Amino acid sequence: MFSDLKDKRVLITGSTKGIGLATAQAFARAGAKVGLNGQRSDDSLHVLAKEVAALGGEAEYFAADLTQTEQCEQLVTAFVERFGGIDVLINNAGGLGGRKGLESIDDAFYQHVMDLNARSALMVTKYAIPHLRRAAKQSGNTTSVISTGSIAGREGGGPGAAIYAASKAWLHNIHRNWVKEFTKDNIRFNVVSPGTIDTVFHADKSAEVRDKISSGIAMGRFGTSEELAPSFLFFASHACSGYITGQILDVNGGQMAP
Ligand code: NAD
């Protein structure tokens, strides 16, 4: 399964931990060439890339704060210099950015949450498009953009998470537009939309709150990052999903069935 991912050049933003790291590990096991990214410049992250590469593929860490457009461009340039092109882009960097009710939201908070979840994906995709187009032309197969959406983008988000939820709905929707603009170039666009996944994203929650959330999930528990990863491989693989574009795949243990 996923054998066509061997040697594919896969850039995964926000992949130093959580869902992004588990996905990077899964791609490496499939023999892919993986670009890891986070906002920090730190030797331990280069060590992490070596550990990922040891799983079977190649891997390199690229520091870039994707809330900054020029760093989105630098990330794509550095990845292409290292691996020679891009076959798959995964826009996974993102986060809550804090919780604020409507009456507490100011311009700085709005800007930060939108930059982290919307601008980051927009700008990395913008700079990746020429490379994805070229790779599709050279291989004769589709190339792929996959973004990490959210159940919050479907149902509005929890208390104080309105801008985060709206930014994910924005991401879900902009994919639909990109399908119209770039299908002629043989580039596919799909979203993996997680429910509640056990990562540091939920570090602010008490055991009581976690139990309450779990009781609202049909499977009765949070998901794991490892349970998310294969969905990204599915959308990355032309053999598995070459006729699938513009879709949102909800991976949420039955928390919601949109
Ligand atoms: P996480 O906090 O474990 O990982 C976030 C990753 O993004 C880290 O690698 C971090 O370094 C990186 N990152 C953060 N800010 C960045 C920046 N400015 N520039 C570059 N990289 C940056 O979180 P996670 O739970 O694994 O979340 C990954 C994605 O999944 C996010 O987009 C998140 O919104 C989404 N998501 C998570 C859940 C969940 O329940 N965990 C649910 C729905 C959606």
Overview of this structure, please?
This protein has about 260 residues and is an alpha/beta fold. It has one domain: NAD(P)-binding Rossmann-like Domain (Rossmann fold). The protein has helices at about 20-30, 45-55, 70-85, 105-140, 150-155, 160-180, 205-215, 225-235, 240, and strands spanning about 10, 35-40, 60-65, 90, 145-150, 185-195, 245-250. The protein has a seven-stranded parallel β-sheet, with helices on both faces. α3 runs parallel beside α4 (about 105-140) and α4 packs parallel to α6. The longest helix is centred in the middle third of the chain and has 33 residues, at about 105-140. The chain is globular, with a radius of gyration of 17 Å. It starts with 8 loop residues before the first strand and ends in a 7-residue tail after the last strand. The model has no long low-confidence stretch (mean pLDDT about 95). The site of nicotinamide-adenine-dinucleotide (NAD) has 27 residues, from α1 and β2.
Spell out the key features of this protein.
alpha/beta; Rossmann fold; seven-stranded parallel β-sheet
